Amino acid sequence: MVLLGAPCWLRSRLTDRFWRVQEVLKYARHFRGRKNRCYKLAIRSVRRAFVKSTKARREKKRFLRALWITRIEAASLEHGLKYPAFISNLLKSQVELNRKMIADLAIYEPKTFKSLAALAQRRRQEGFLAALGDGKEPEGIFSRIVRHY
Amino acid sequence: VAKTSLTSPPWPEVKLPDPVEEAKYHAEVVQKVNKMIAEGQYGRLFAVVHFASKQWKITSEDLIMMDNVLEAECGDRIRMEKVLLVGADDFTLIGRPLLGKDLVRVEATVIEKTESWPKINMRFWKRHNYQRKKIIVNPQTVLRINTIEIFPCLS
């Protein structure tokens, strides 16, 4: 006679509950309070910690960029230029350093940063001169002050 | 014509130096720098290199780790071609945007190809019984920058 299916008195019992619990608690060991020991409190904290770390990975990029911009602004103000002027003139002179590099150069290579600031200043002045043009009045306009009676 | 608020531009008037004298001064500076490079009067060189879609500030004998796979075996020498800036103590060569390949040479060796630590990506909406957990392991490559050389071919 072939018996199909397990008999009723056979039950399956969970034998590795300890290790399943440890898998979660290992991420909570450095937390404060009971959530580093008690599983029920720990899964909640560990879940939140994972979600926060995923979101933070996206925001770290924004945060670091803002930090670099602040540093570049501070360094360029030391050389007498404002940040928008500095960056726009560097880009117009076809220097494609990104903000991370310029911030690192401003910290570790002050002479190089000074030369970059001088380059940006010179390009700015050339831009002003180019904007002024010839200095002559355009033809159709006779004077800027019109008196009418 | 009477003076209004728009007769003169809001920026202070600037005069650029004489172009002829400037050209002479530039040529002098370029010659000096060329001479310094030819005689080897520089100490440690640093370079800004564009590699793996990132910019790195490197010197000789330093390690770089990138978060992707490089199609080169361990121990292969690599020449990095997109150099944006090279500098020493007394002079810097700024590329617009890149420096020439006959001017700078940056050599690196592939040391290690590993995987990153397992990063956990988790999404959770409360009260909706929704959670997804994904473990991301990125391949990483470690390079050692061997040398940065410059050649005196400025003009």
Automatic annotation (TrEMBL), chain A:
Protein name: Large ribosomal subunit protein bL20m
One of the GO biological process terms: translation
Listed GO CC annotations: ribonucleoprotein complex; ribosome
InterPro entries attached to this UniProt entry: Ribosomal_bL20, Ribosomal_protein_bL20_C
Keyword Ribonucleoprotein: yes
Family recorded in the similarity comment: Belongs to the bacterial ribosomal protein bL20 family.
Taxonomic placement: Eukaryota, Metazoa, Chordata, Craniata, Vertebrata
Xref: PANTHER family: 39S RIBOSOMAL PROTEIN L20
GO-annotated molecular function: rRNA binding; structural constituent of ribosome
Coiled-coil parts of chain: none
Organism: Podilymbus podiceps (Pied-billed grebe)
Keywords: Ribonucleoprotein, Ribosomal protein
UniProtKB/TrEMBL annotation, chain B:
Cellular-component GO terms for this entry: mitochondrial large ribosomal subunit
Molecular-function annotations in GO: structural constituent of ribosome
Pfam families, A to Z: Ribosomal_L21p
InterPro entries membership: bL21-like (IPR028909), bL21-like_sf (IPR036164)
PANTHER family in alphabetical order: 50S RIBOSOMAL PROTEIN L21 (PTHR21349), LARGE RIBOSOMAL SUBUNIT PROTEIN BL21M (PTHR21349:SF0)
Family, per entry: Belongs to the bacterial ribosomal protein bL21 family.
Protein name per UniProt: Large ribosomal subunit protein bL21m
Organism of derivation: Podilymbus podiceps
